[in-house]
Amino acid sequence: MLGLRPTAAEPAESAGPVGTTRTADGTARTADDTSRTADGTARTADGTTRTAEGTPRTADGTPRTAVDATEAVEAVLTRVLDASARRARAVDPVFAEDVADRLTAFVLRGGKRLRSAFAWCGWRAAGGSGDPEAVLHTAAALELVQACALVHDDVMDGSPLRRGAPAVHVQFERLHLAAGMGGPPRTFAASAAVLTGDLALAWADDLLTETALASSDGARLHTEWRAMRSEMVAGQYRDLHAQATGATGLDDAEAIATLKSALYTVARPLALGALTACADERTLEALRAAGRCAGLAFQLHDDLAGAFGDPATTGKPADDDLRTRKLTYLLAVALTLAEASGDAAATAALTPGADPSPAAVDRMRRALRETGARAVVHAEIVDLAARSRRHFAATGADPAVQREFADLVERAAGLAQHRVEQGR
Q1: Following CA atoms 194, 200, 202, 205 in sequence, which dihedral angle do they give, to the nearest 10 degrees?
Q2: Using CA atoms, how far apart are residues 195 and 176, in angstroms rounded to an integer?
Q3: Which residues partner with 21 through β-bridges?
Q4: Burial letters for 214-248: b for 16+ Cβ neighbours within 10 Å, e otherwise?
Q5: What is the pLDDT of residues 5-14, one digit of tens each?
Q6: What is the pLDDT of residue 419?
Q7: CB 386 within 8 A of CB 406
Q8: Which residues of 275-302 are buried (b: 16+ CB within 10 A; e: fewer)?
């Protein structure tokens, strides 16, 4: 219906303390032929290095896999956030403790780090090798933008849970109550959470700007970044607008999915990563097409997880999308199928403005299955994932990088998990 129709990291050998010798240049060498340089970098006999932070890298300094790259981004985020928090403390101690430190903890709590992994794939597809600093810093900036989006999204949706812990606005509400502050707790919490998201975006812009200024292709990098920011806000507004107007159409649902996920989650990160390697336009076009398909597959999987997922796995409540009748592609497909078949009960259960009670949510979930929408959306995910792989292959990327991308898309789109569940 849509208009668009990890490999695990190989462990580096450890440098054991027994049988260690030291060469004239200060390199420590162990009995298993692993060497460790003066800066703490371990190097195995096959040329693989492991940095002091523990990230495996090839002989030219490149993270070996997307998984390794996300670990390297985590180390960059830790350094960037530590420096940003120190600057915040110099500005004001209350702001630093309540807002900056809370943001730091939220970002480092984890997440899928999909944007980091896709940025790395884009960099490799464009021929990136050697010093990965630019792509790692760009990926870290993407994770900070994502923090902004999540904090704001939870405020707008009234979601109490994020990444398996209380959402930021819930934390602020608890702070208000515990401190005996005046005024409505929820008003304070929402306002403080919005400021926290704003700070995440400011820190992201700072980091990307520093990276662009140091890059030979900084102008194009910043242009791509600027487009992504606008698309992210546009997607959020279209989502908000659809709920306020009671929109149910497939076109509206696809527009939201394209802006919020296809472009923001995959296509732009792939292109941003490629631009840190000075990618040509042919490569960028192929990556954007691959990202559009993969991003839609990811969003459709997220729609399914929002309706049928386990909160212990997803880290967010399972009923939010259903309770609020949020316009997802899954809901739009179900309504279309229900109306086409004359299924009045399913149509009533799925129509915006209906009863939000737990029993109504159960009826809605049943309608998503019985209309065939769940199966249709899964088939779309499979098709979109296949198309994304073909577009990525058109970049001429090394086969190993293509396998990395394919595995990443499978995980993002939930296809690997689906096969495991089907095999039980």
Answers
A1: -140
A2: 15
A3: 29
A4: ebebbebbbebbeebbebbebbbebbeebbeeebb
A5: 322 333 233 3
A6: 55
A7: no
A8: bbbebeeebbebbbbbbbbbbbbbbbbb
C-alpha 272/C-alpha 73 separation (Å) is 15
Core vs surface per residue 313-333: b (16+ CB within 10 A) or e: ebbbbbbbbbbebbbbbbbbb
Q: What one-letter code names the amino acid at 421?
A: E
Token output for 23: 């060469």
Q: Give the H/E segment covering residue 57.
A: strand 56-57
Q: How many other CB atoms are there within 10 angstroms of residue 348's CB atom?
A: 15
Rounded to whole angstroms, the Cα distance separating 121 from 116 reads 9
Backbone φ and ψ for 309, nearest 5 degrees, come out as: -75, 165
- Residue 42 is predicted with a pLDDT of 44
pTM score: 0.83
Structure tokens at 281: 């336009």
Pair type for strands 35-36 and 56-57:
unpaired
Contacts of 211 (CB under 8 A, 6+ apart): 134, 137, 138, 141, 218, 221, 276
pLDDT band at 44 (very low <50, low <70, confident <90, very high): very low
Helices first, then strands: H and E counts in the chain: 19, 8
CA distance 138 to 208: 6
Lowest average pLDDT, out of 51-65, 96-110, 167-181, 218-232, goes to: 51-65
